[in-house]
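Lecture 7 notes: from sequence to structure.

We start with a single chain of 384 residues. Read the sequence below before looking at the structure.
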Amino acid sequence: METADVVVIGGGNAGTSVLYYLAKKGLKNIILIEKELIASESTGKSAGGFRQQFSTEVNIKMSKFSVDTFRQLNEELDLETVFHHKGYTFLAGNEQQLKLHQRNVELQKSFGVDVDMITLDELKEIVPDIYTDDLVGATYCPSDGFTDPYEIAQGYVRKARQLGAKTKEKTEVIGINISNGKVVGVETDKFSISTPVVVNAAGPWSGEIGKLAGLELPIKPYRRQIFTSGPFKPFKEKNYVMPMVVDPTAVYMRSEGDRILMGFADKSEPPSFNQNLEWSFLDKLVGPAVNRIPIFEDLEIHDGWAGLYDTTPDHHAVLGRVSEVEGFILACGFSGHGFMHSPAVGTTIAELIIDGKPSTIDISPLSVDRFAGGKTGIEEVAVI
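Now the structure, written as tokens:
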């Protein structure tokens, strides 16, 4: 039987970030367990966006801390990842959406986010080929952007290993051992580990891991599909990089090298672990995309993939301890925001475990207990 001070379950951005920040704070006897390969599931299938445009204080704080951290992450993790701070723009198609964005922008600015409401003429300067006749306004935050979540997760793991942490890939957790209400170990399909602390960072499978500890977590897996085009000459010839454009239809689009990436969250699809790509899904995506960027009519879609979100009823993460089982800590339920919040998640969970309480950001609003107490506030900005 192996022993560990902490076992982290899940090798995506959340789990690898927790592993790294625990190691950075001096903890060496820590093990991360991943049932597949590091960053091979939701992290490796992410659209890679990061933004600070949220509607609640805790999400804005998590985002701003993480975006600020991204600026130094290459040096800290010895990466060569390009962080494209090309911005996000959310489009308003009616007065109700406009008022929502105006209220959110005011809140975001109060926490130091460099975001503004912009006119449609200003929007056309940022996205020259955009159709605006059916819009009433837009937001824009230039420090938002996109990057490669896979490389970030690999960087977390590589540096954590250098600091003494261990990882076990192709290893599945099949049991959580509990004695007198406390975590005492983890069972895998290959070996057992004696440990007093388990971090559930299993993403879409977090609910299944919760069941191993006797918990019913309010987290469900939802399929999300993304498509990419072939090289798009009009943008390549102008050396133009399109920011993330979020349409009122919830279709989102951005540059991906010399190609275009686009996706759509079909909220009518029931929860499942289905990760099959369906090309018929393009019927829901292409129309709104071409309506917004008419020159996309010449796009040729070459590739696509499907991945899973770990989604909660209020579209906020669940972070921190659970009252039912001592030593069982949650870092999941990100509802599509796991990568962009990973520096904040790793930092605060490491502080919680080692120092007893997070000092960087108050994560108490993200406690799973909020659902029992009815203290939930819906994240209103489009979930991507």
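Residues 57-77 form the longest helix (21 residues). Keep this in mind for problem set 3.
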